[in-house]
Design goal:
By secondary structure, this protein is mainly alpha-helical. 67% of the residues lie in helices and 0% in strands. It has a domain of 258 residues.
């Protein structure tokens, strides 16, 4: 299979990714006044599932065209290089996050903060804790999605090899790995504390592969899944049922099934079937609802799209700010009237960073264009004889 790059950037993907980044930040400051209004409160999934699907789409756009054209080693090495970038970002993020809580413990005497978010094992045994942080086997709360993404990018060359033989083999292998993970409980172990990764890559890879499938189909100028009216209404009905199920907290009402409970319990680490169907239904309904056409008409300079274009630095900054926000919530317990301007300030910082990076990219592009033009002979460039 050979695919061609879309050429122009699909700003719809950036917009949705920017929206996911915004809601992830809000959700990562628990108890704030905006948290009850994010979409995690109205269904079985949250922005993490959407973010991983979008990561799969972006990976398809970025690496598969070159891989499919025969530049397999180059595309694979670029994916590995990106995994290295994410690893460095993760280690820096987790150290900065712990530092925020450590500063609050010293400055405000709130040593209890060091007992939260799985920080305690690092404080109790720094030697083993540092090994765990470096190996990504010890992950503190709200800093645990990038390790999973690192492993998925390292596995991307194998995914692309399967996809080069057709999308069906890729989806088939991914589904088999997902099913075996549910049956046997495969998951990378944690260290030094007991347990396993919160974002289990053996389960979450199915969402990443789903996004990769969508990205390839878009590059083929084909709908990922054709519109079928009964299927669309069935997906919408499932979203409504999921909202009712979640809002009325009916999780304990599920009957026992002759399957490992990881299949049907609403477990985020293993992406239980209910969560998987929910994100797939959401993608199908939104994708065929006309909303994407509305997003297409938005200017590429809108804040969410700009944030989505610079997802990693915005995510990194948002993660650090959420630790600051959690500290403020714990120490001062601000009222809603105080929370709103603080949240607005944090969001403005992330938007300002995105616009600044956008400006830098444009300025660098203009500088390169000017440098290239300066190397050309002015007369020849203009199509007239050069001056003597």
């Amino acid at each position: 299979m050979t695919v061609k790059s879309l050429g122009a950037r699909d700003h719809r993907i950036d917009f949705i990714r920017g929206l996911a980044l915004l809601t992830i930040f809000i959700n990562h400051v628990p108890g704030n006044v905006l948290e009850p209004f994010t979409h995690k409160n109205f269904g079985l999934t949250d922005s993490a599932e959407l973010f991983v699907v979008l990561a799969g789409i972006a990976a398809a756009f970025a690496y598969f065209p070159r891989f499919s054209e025969g530049h397999r080693l180059l595309a694979s090495l670029k994916a590995v290089k990106r995994a290295g970038t994410l690893y460095v970002a993760h280690v820096a993020s987790i150290v900065a996050g712990i530092a925020v809580f450590a500063w609050a413990a010293v400055h405000f005497g709130r040593t209890d903060l060091l007992d939260t978010l799985n920080i305690a094992p690092v404080m109790a045994d720094p030697v083993r804790g540092l090994v765990g942080l470096a190996a990504m086997t010890h992950q503190i709360g709200y800093h645990n999605i990038l390790p999973m993404y690192v492993l998925l990018l390292l596995a991307l060359p194998l995914m692309m090899l399967l996809a080069s033989r057709g999308l069906a083999p890729l989806l088939g292998v991914s589904a088999i790995v997902y099913a075996l993970t549910q049956i046997y409980g495969w998951s990378p172990p944690a260290y030094p504390a007991a347990g396993h990764w919160f974002f289990n890559p053996f389960a979450w890879q199915l969402l990443f592969v789903t996004g990769f499938f969508v990205g390839v189909r878009l590059m083929q100028k084909r709908p990922p899944v054709p519109y079928v009216r009964p299927l669309w209404w069935l997906a919408l009905a499932y979203l409504v049922a999921g909202c009712v199920f979640h809002r009325w907290n009916l999780y304990g009402s599920m009957p026992d099934l002759p399957l490992p409970d990881r299949f049907y319990a609403n477990e985020k680490p293993f992406v239980a079937i209910g969560r998987l169907l929910h994100i797939l239904s959401l993608l199908y309904v939104v994708g065929h609802s006309g909303l994407m056409d509305l997003v297409r008409r938005l200017p590429a300079s809108n804040p969410l799209t700009v944030a989505g274009r610079h997802a990693l630095p915005v995510f990194w900054t948002g993660t650090l700010l959420c630790m600051v926000g959690q500290t403020v919530m714990a120490v001062y317990a601000p009222t809603a009237g105080v929370q709103l301007p603080l949240l607005a300030l944090a969001i403005a910082i992330q938007a300002g960073l995105a616009y600044g990076l956008d400006w830098m990219a444009s300025a660098e592009k203009a500088a390169r264009a000017g440098k290239a033009a300066g190397r050309a002979e002015p007369g020849l460039a203009a199509g007239v004889p050069a001056a003597a």
